[in-house]
Amino acid sequence: MNTEKTYKVNKIFYSIQGEGARVGTPQVFVRFSGCNLHCPFCDTDHASSYKEMTAHEIVQECRRIGNRCASVSLCGGEPTLQLDSWLIAEFKRYGWFISIETNGLLPVPDGVDYIVCSPKTAKIAPDNIDELRYVVKAGDPMPVPHKFARHYFLSPCFDGEQPNKDNIAHCLTLVTEHPSWRLGMQWHKFIGIE
Ligand code: SF4
Q: What pTM was estimated for this model as a whole?
């Protein structure tokens, strides 16, 4: 175990999964600071502040606030910039289920149980993807991913915390024309939770 290495963590909190195939599932979120993209519609304040934490400190904090669920979502920012085998092993030591939300630019290390990829470019590096989620605005073309996933979602781009009717209407049209895809709403924003 690498006890010295630290990770830049913006926030750790206990909530429910707000979107995708596991919506409503209680889990602890570890939001890493930093991203390798600068999307204009980014709705996550991941970079304003962070704390340096070891793998042991991260997992102990997750256990302290959400040990009943034993399930963590690694998000960001971009979690693949920092995630490594040390942190995965520390979660697995306590039997935790590990999911990740990545923009797909980098591969996902072995040991992650559930991969959500929300591509912002044509590149999709991870394999064994569980969910592909595309953020879509009115007028955007239908995504044509070059990798397979178990679930496919189109997520209408929000205006900050507010839904955008034009983006929703466009996604509804695309989904009805491509019924292997699903509408992926960010339900946590409707009920005012993180
Ligand atoms: S990839 Fe995600 S976290 Fe990074 S800038 Fe884009 S929306 Fe924000």
A: 0.95
